Amino acid sequence: RSYSSPETEGHLLNSFVQYFGDSLGRKVKRMPLIEETVLPGDTLLTLPVVIIGNGPSGICLSYLLSGYRPYLSPEAIHPNPILHTKLEEARHLSIVDQDLEYLSEGLEGRSSNPVAVLFDTLLHPDADFGYDYPPVLHWKLEQHNYIPHIVLGKGPPGGAWHSMEGCMLTISFGDWMELPGLTFKEWAASKRRNIKSDRVLPEEIARYYKHYVKVMGLQKNFRDNVYITSVSRLYRGKDDEDRSQINENISAQHLEVEDGQKSLIKRNWEVRGYQQATDGSHVPFCLFAENVALATGSFDSPARLQVEGEDFPFVLHSMSDFGAAISKGKLRGKADPVLIVGAGLSAADAVLCAYNNNIPVIHVFRRRVTDTSLIFKQLPKKLYPEYHKVYHMMCTQSHSGDSNLHSAYTSFPEHNVLSFKPEMKCVLQSASGLKKILKFSVALVLIGSHPNLFFLKDQGHSIGHHSNQPITCKGNPIEIDPYTYECTKEANLFALGPLVGDNFVRFLKGGALGIARCLAIRQKKKHELLEGGDGGGGDGVP
């Protein structure tokens, strides 16, 4: 690693506190080098909230923490009469200030998180029934509700959307990918972009998210090219489950406010990492946070088959690598087919990509083609013709025991990959136990992806629904309180988006709402304690 000098190191900290310094009313030193010992008494930057991840989850949370508040529009009538009656009862209050459990009671939708279903039906009423009703909310910027925070991301705002393949359309409609306060169609019109269909290219979504941060005035909260190396808790109470237990030796390190009183920002978390400079050097930093929100998404680590030979260079695990091989002409003129493993949309994209480039395909997947859980069964044919083309081939061009491969595409349903051989051969096994060896030019394994939470203790294995197992978006998401999105097993740690099972942008916005409400309540209680003259006691919040 190439570290910059201590002098340049201060520039990163200055950029962090250029905005926050005024609002927090304090002076700070430069950030220590990553190898240096951090003493609790050092005057270091402490923030109420650090958000890790700058994709749509992190952007939406920053929007709400910046003071934007949703209210029921004066003319709006929600098509759900029971929900509308509840909304009318507190029309004068923003949704952030209302009882989310009460509002979401009885609602049903395609998320297992009730607040996600609530927020989605307020922004897209009856969308799953094919209706295109406008949102029943309008937004106000209330500066007094601003909670200081910072959003740290590896690339520009938009997260993984900037690295997705641009040749495939999004599975969701453009309207479902948008964030509060700026419709996708408004953005497209302002950029004079001609959106020909309801589904759009990932690169358009990435540009929309980047523009959203700018037009909403959120840039001051965002830092790009930042890589997190560790997030660790500074102390633990005698009883981890009793969140009121405080280690006074460290929690007494408060931030001074202008009137001489002490605010109640606890140094619960230490966040370390580095920012990559334009010359490639690494500028280390260390900051403290009362709360950390995980919004890292699920595209960090491709899932693996865990079979022999999977590490050979001709076995790929991403569409970007496959696309690069095609664009460089590495597969042109190859007699042997491409081997694609998986039965999801990424695998279908790869099949289409190969098919459109006249590259023969062997398609291997474990499920039956009649399996009702296949994603193709959930997609209307009229809206997703290309995916149904792949599904049709999966069903009609499957391999039978005594036949040769089809010229352009052959599927192997109910088959597992046993191993890859160095001579570019693959050993398959059918459901009946029959083994078959196939020759291929390149293999592409697309069986999903997992979040990489290496920067947490035990890689975050302790905070899932199933303890001591890796976090996965479907099988083992982070266990949260359904209304606050706070981790049930780790106080002051929040998670949203794919990490809690909400893979669609439509639903991850509910996580931002739940977290914003929780933090707003705690912030209000702290202000009440300060006004009551308690300048240094506990925060009084469970």
UniProtKB/TrEMBL annotation:
Domain of life: Eukaryota
GO biological process: negative regulation of cell growth
GO molecular function annotation: growth factor activity
InterPro entries: FAD/NAD-bd_sf (IPR036188), OSGIN1/2 (IPR029731)
Name the UniProt record assigns to this protein: OSGI2 inhibitor
Native organism: Turnix velox
